[in-house]
Amino acid sequence: MLYIKKQEMQSVMQKALENAGCDQARAQQLARIITENTMDGSTTHGANRFPRLVAEVKSGVVSLEGQMQKVSGFGGLEVWDGGFGFGVLNAEQASERVIALAKEHGIGCVSLRNSNHWMRPGRYGWNMAKAGMIGICWSNTSGNMPVWGASDVRMGNNPIVLAVPSADGPVLVDMAMSQFSNGKLEVAKQKGESMPMPCGWDADGNLTNDPETVLKTKRLLQTGYWKGSAFAMAMDLACLVSSLGMSTPKIDESKKTKNAETGHSQMFIAIHCAAVADPETADRLLKEAEEAYLSSQPDGSGTPIRIPGRRISRKRAQAEAEGVPVLEGTWKKILELAAEEKELGKNENLHTIALRRLDGLL
């Protein structure tokens, strides 16, 4: 594992995006968000996914001209079209817009169609919670797991986020409807590791812990088995009827012709609870409930009892101080995209920070 200074990671990513044709302002914003995602502990939807994003820009899957456009609205409900632009920037704008709607109406909902992969969804729930809102958002994806009872792949593992504002930092759940995300499987494959429990089915229909096998079959194991399957389907259909965008089956049809995943549909909901519930009273009640959860009797497995989302701020502070963790192979790919490999040996600072292992060298 390498540990890269925050500003170094941002500048290298920005250069790679500019090399791919992105304008400076958006490249800078994207590089900052993706670096922060990695700092918050989401390497799978941060640095690890960055080379794929650049490839999608170069191939035209992500439109450099694509901009968010409002389609329709009624009170606190709005529909927007992402123009097949950057999913990260579309989602960031959608979360900002839904916060504004909730401040005006008490509750806001933005349905978004024709977007792309939004990287780390927890970021957008975090944005809403930091603004004092209960935040809910989810996205559909291309097909990567079967409907419960089926052997072929027609359903996405559609991630969902629920964030609750708190004086001690948001309570945040960010999860896919599969037991493990594709990103987790990709990291385990790179490390040559097996998953701690079954992650999907092999080609013969047997459950397996091997991430490489499941990445090939695309038969991810659903969270909660049939319950996760039903929830994923309902999320997809809710996006469909509210935005009139693409469902997972339609995304898969498009993927066959474009050879890439694009056209995601997403929903963002913000609830301005502070407008009707005293924040100080809410925080007191929240702390009482959290203390009750944290005082649970340990089961002896060594698994820590935690409040979800509370480690994010600590991880970011640690990354600020020690550097942003990234796999060596991933960082080399990013350097190549920024054409920084030509400067190795000339720029000792970059060479030292980026390519030496921290353990025993720095």
What this model shows, in words?
The protein is of the alpha+beta class. It has 13 helices and eleven strands. It has helices at 6-19, 24-39, 50-59, 87-105, 122-130, 182-191, 211-217, 226-243, 248-258, 279-294, 311-322, 328-337, 348-355; strands at residues 2-4, 69-74, 77-81, 107-115, 134-139, 160-164, 171-175, 200-201, 207-208, 264-271, 324-326. Strands 2-3-4-10-5-6-7 form a seven-stranded mixed beta sheet, sandwiched between helices. Strand 2 (69-74) and strand 3 form a beta hairpin. Helix 4 (87-105) packs parallel to helix 5 (122-130). The chain starts with a strand and ends in a 7-residue tail after the last helix. Residues 340-362 have low confidence and may be disordered.
Please describe the topology of this protein:
Elements lengths: L1 E3 L1 H14 L4 H16 L10 H10 L9 E6 L2 E5 L5 H19 L1 E9 L6 H9 L3 E6 L20 E5 L6 E5 L6 H10 L8 E2 L5 E2 L2 H7 L8 H18 L4 H11 L5 E8 L7 H16 L16 H12 L1 E3 L1 H10 L10 H8 L7
Parallel strand pairs: 3-4
Antiparallel strand pairs: 1-11, 2-3, 4-10, 5-6, 5-10, 6-7, 8-9
Q: Beta-strand level of the residues, as a percent range?
A: 5-15%
Low-confidence stretches: 340-362
Form type = globular
**Radius of gyration over alpha carbons?**
21 Å
Main sheet?
A: 7 strands, mixed
Task: Enumerate how many helices there are, as a single number.
Answer: 13
Name the helix and strand elements from N-terminus to C-terminus, one letter apiece. EHHHEEHEHEEEHEEHHHEHHEHH
Q: Kindly state the mean pLDDT as a whole number?
A: 91
> How many distinct beta strands?
11
First-last Cα distance: 13 Å
Q: Strands of the biggest beta sheet: in what spatial order?
A: 2-3-4-10-5-6-7
What does the oligomeric state look like here?
single chain
Helix content: 40-55%
